[in-house]
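Dear support,

I submitted the protein below through the web form. The confirmation email said the job was done, but the results page showed an empty box. After a refresh the structure appeared. I'm attaching both so you can tell me whether what I see now is the final result or a partial one.
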Amino acid sequence: MKIAIGSDHGGFELKEQIKHYFDNLKISYVDLGTYSKDSVDYPDYGKKLGLAVMNEDFDFGIGICGTGIGISIAANKVKGIRAALVYDENTGRLAKEHNNANIIALGGRTTTREQAIKIINSFMQSTFEPRHQPRLDKIKNIEGNE
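What the results page shows now:
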């Protein structure tokens, strides 16, 4: 498994905690930045994450900003991205099962390390349910991918 992870300054601390967790479990990831608490713009990192997930060999991405809202909006502007703002284990699981999300977004100021780990594990242990494919096809139609 290979994961792309990116954040703005509001998500930097949580990103670093998640990376430490991944390191301990030997889960492969690529850190797309930011690399400090210095103020940056979440759209830049949402775009970078979205493009990386679409164009490189990642199983999924994790985007983190202050609330997770901004980075999920930005990532969703990249064609083919289905970024889901998740806030508990249930939404993490459903993002995969129902929406086949390829990025999950977390709030660095609203999500604890423990919550984030539970959410990520719930997402990673879930499987897309093909009965939802017709809805994903409608999303592709909106994007003009048909």
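Response: this is the final, complete result; the empty box was a page-load delay. The first strand starts at residue 2 and ends at 7.
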